[in-house]
Recover the amino acids of this structure.
């Protein structure tokens, strides 16, 4: 893959770009210049060498990552500053830092953060029944399913599902349009789902990675806050985070104004890294508590039925990603959408892209790890 000549290596006038409109948040989250991370402004930049990283090694790592699959971008944050970025052009992407990539299931981790914001505000509790906010007649979930079980993929499932997220369009294709995808009742679970999925499988009985059930967290948050989940997400999380590029694909917001938790977000690598920095900093953002430290801790703690999963975040506690630190957590989406958070190294890495290749977390870390640690 070829990098853009205008946007090559680590020097892309990091602090000079103007923010795009559309992610405005409440004034109560105003930034402070002495806080970690970017606040509601652009990322602060720093030289790689100033944080112990070698520019030449980062260049080699980016080359290896680009060769592994059709990448669009790579962003490295250390010590709360942007120290490296690289962008590539291909049939689906432009080599621009404000390009909106399709999140696929990496969007689930934003959904987990939205639930965390609602918990922090006291709008709901993790052991509340989902049915308190979103009736089983609409959700298809069992009456005893809790919010915590939806976050940990142990709900037992539902047959009221939304279609899968749509891939990005090629640059030479017409722009997508149309209404959001609505829930549809199915006769049975998708291929590979466990026996009794959505019917007799008990809540809390087993882990099954299941975006269909997690999508209903959006309706639960809407029921708890009295607003659409789209409005809540944008005003309570995305605005305060200062996202430059964050919107939903047409299918990502349904007619009730509720979002798809399982994906359908268009965002930049820089903005995906904002989510990682929020979790790295234990829910603090620009000197304010967006999400409680306790919720962040629980989110990144292995869940009882799968030590490799927390609250809509993958974990490396059991060495799932070879060679990576055991405290690493990551948001992950199809075709290689990753946000790696490494608390012990004060490091966040975001990479996104799309193409024919399926970039795995192991492959991404194999390309990057040696240059980062």
């Amino acid at each position: 893959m070829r990098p853009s000549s205008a946007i090559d290596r680590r020097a892309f006038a990091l602090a000079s770009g103007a923010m795009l409109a559309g992610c405005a948040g409440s004034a109560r989250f105003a930034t402070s210049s002495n806080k970690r991370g970017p606040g509601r402004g652009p990322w602060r930049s720093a030289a790689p060498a100033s944080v112990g990283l070698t520019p030449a090694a980062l260049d080699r790592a980016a080359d290896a990552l680009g060769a592994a699959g059709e990448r669009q971008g790579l962003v490295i944050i250390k010590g709360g500053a942007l120290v490296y970025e690289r962008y590539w052009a291909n049939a689906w992407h432009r080599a621009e830092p404000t390009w909106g990539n399709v999140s696929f299931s990496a969007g689930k981790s934003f959904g987990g953060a939205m639930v965390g914001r609602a918990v922090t505000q006291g709008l709901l509790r993790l052991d509340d029944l989902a049915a308190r906010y979103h009736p089983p007649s609409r959700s298809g979930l069992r009456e005893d399913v809790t919010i915590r079980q939806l976050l940990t993929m142990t709900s037992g499932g539902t047959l009221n599902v939304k279609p899968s997220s749509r891939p990005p369009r090629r640059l030479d294709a017409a722009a997508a349009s149309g209404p959001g995808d609505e829930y549809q009742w199915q006769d049975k679970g998708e291929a590979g789902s466990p026996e009794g999925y959505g019917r007799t499988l008990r809540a809390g009985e087993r882990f099954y990675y299941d975006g269909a059930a997690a999508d209903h967290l959006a309706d639960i948050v809407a029921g708890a806050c009295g607003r659409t989940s789209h409005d809540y997400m944008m005003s309570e999380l995305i605005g305060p985070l200062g996202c430059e590029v964050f919107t939903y694909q047409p299918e990502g917001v349904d007619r009730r104004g509720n979002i798809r938790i399982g994906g359908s977000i268009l965002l930049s690598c820089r903005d995906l890294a904002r989510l990682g920095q929020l979790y790295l900093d234990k829910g603090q953002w620009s000197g304010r508590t967006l999400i409680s430290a306790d919720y962040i801790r629980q989110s990144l703690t292995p869940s009882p039925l799968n030590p490799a999963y927390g609250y809509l975040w993958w974990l490396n506690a059991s060495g799932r990603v070879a060679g990576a630190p055991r405290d690493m957590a990551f948001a992950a989406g199809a075709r290689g959408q990753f946000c790696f958070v490494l608390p012990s190294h004060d490091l966040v890495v975001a990479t996104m892209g799309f193409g024919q290749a399926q970039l795995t977390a192991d492959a991404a870390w194999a390309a990057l790890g040696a240059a980062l640690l």
